[in-house]
Specification:
By secondary structure, the chain is of the alpha+beta class. The chain has helices at residues 10-54, 98-111, 141-145, 173-177, 182-190, 206-220, 224-236, 278-281, 287-298, 305-311, 375-390, and strands spanning 59-65, 71-76, 92-93, 130-131, 134-135, 259-262, 265-268, 284-285, 325-326, 331-333, 341-343, 346-348, 351-358, 363-368. Helix 2 (98-111) packs across helix 6 and helix 2 packs across helix 10 (305-311). It is globular and about 60 Å long.
Length: 391
């Protein structure tokens, strides 16, 4: 998942004093009203988090940052074996929020004149997008960023793996310990035909962001993780955010346990090799760091105005709620109260995160430490996120 006259003589002094007193009372009333409103919001969000836990999630947490300061609300358990709650400074796997970091670096390169948004990916990765009807000459950098490329996904996602394909299934036990390089993931995708003609529509596809990570390395001569570190993490002081090292399976620092249901049984899924997610979803961060990142991005601290404007040009997409839209690695979130909220979100076995920033500068991350397949259960998490902005 913001923010009185000078007397002209003795006769006016009393009036000024009265006015000052009235203003003080008004400010006090406004302050009291604002404080009451904040308490009501936190009470409503706490109730929503309790509902999340009752619906089957082990634990849930909402972290607020912005004009009203830093607030953490937690329900349920971060560790089912001990009953301990999700730590206030917990690091979690952030899944597809990674895409916004990658998109930001790509758009920085655009602003530097090193990448053209509407150039074909073939210019930067010659011969990589090829085979079975896939053609890098017909797919642009913008289309990769906005999921309008039509390229097949190496990850099966919501649907079963395509018959006869090598598509990966994120929650398979085999994938937990398997290691992949980006070229391996692209090879799996290129063995399948395109989903649709480039530019025809937007279908969320992880292959797009694996290719964008490869583009960053090709253009800069450094791994995408290193560029994210130099261009975003270090300048913003995001010390609790990182890409796992090659074959690193754990989570550094304080963190909850992440759970996943396998064959009807809940398993501790905290440790896994996220190489299959790579620049599409492998990063780890704290909610506080995520709030800082999205706030800085939307405030124009990471991109020139022209590139931020491009990033916020959205199209309808296949996974969006009514009223939402997908930009260039950034989502305009739907809200029940009509507030404009920008962020992304991410899911990976063990963790789910909803991220967003409202126009007043309020940033919120809602985290759960298990993914549930049941749509009704997932909807209560979305409701908790909406409550944070609209209660």
């Amino acid at each position: 998942m913001s923010a009185m006259r000078r007397p002209r003589g003795r006769v006016l002094l009393t009036g000024v004093a009265v006015l000052t007193a009235l203003l003080a009372q008004a400010c006090g009333t406004d302050s009291g009203t604002a404080e009451s409103s904040r308490k009501e919001t936190y009470r409503a969000v706490t109730q929503a988090l309790d509902t999340v836990v009752r619906s089957g999630f082990p634990g849930a947490q909402a972290v607020f940052d912005g004009p009203d300061g830093h607030h953490v609300l937690t329900a349920g358990a971060g560790d089912l074996s001990t009953g301990a709650p999700i730590p206030a400074d917990a690091r979690v796997r952030i899944g597809s929020n990674t895409k916004t970091f990658i998109a930001t670096v790509v758009l920085q390169l655009v602003g530097e004149g090193r990448v053209e948004l509407d150039a074909p990916i073939e210019r930067y990765l010659p011969g990589v997008v090829r085979g079975n009807g896939n053609d890098g000459n017909r797919v642009t950098v913008r289309q990769l960023l906005q999921h309008t490329s039509g390229l097949p996904d190496y990850l099966a996602g919501r649907d079963p793996a395509a018959p006869g394909s090598e598509q990966l299934t994120a929650d398979s036990g085999r994938l937990r310990s398997a290691h992949y390089e980006p070229a391996d993931l692209v090879r799996i995708a290129m063995a399948m035909p395109p989903q649709f003609e480039p530019g025809a529509r937007s279908v969320y596809t992880n292959t797009n962001y694996i290719l964008l990570g490869m583009l960053i390395q090709q253009v800069t001569g450094r791994p995408a993780a290193a560029e994210v570190g130099t261009r975003i993490l270090e300048p913003l002081g995001l010390h609790d955010t990182y890409f796992p090292d090659s074959r690193e399976t754990g989570i550094r620092g304080p963190h909850p346990r992440g759970y996943h249901e396998v064959d009807g049984h809940r398993e501790d899924y905290t440790e896994l090799d996220p190489s299959w997610a790579d620049t599409a979803g492998a990063m780890i961060a704290t909610p506080t760091d995520l709030n800082r990142f999205f706030t800085a991005l939307l405030a124009g601290k990471l991109l020139p105005p022209a590139q931020l404007t491009e990033m916020k040009k959205t199209v309808p997409w296949d996974r969006g709620e009514p009223g939402s839209g997908y930009g260039l690695g950034l989502i305009r979130q739907a809200s029940s109260c009509g507030k404009e909220v920008w962020g992304h979100g991410g899911s990976i076995p063990g963790f789910g995160t909803h991220t967003g920033v409202a126009a007043d500068g309020t940033a919120v991350v809602v985290t759960v430490n298990q993914l549930l397949a049941d749509r009704t259960a997932s909807d209560v998490v979305t409701k908790a996120f909406d409550t944070a902005f609209c209660s």
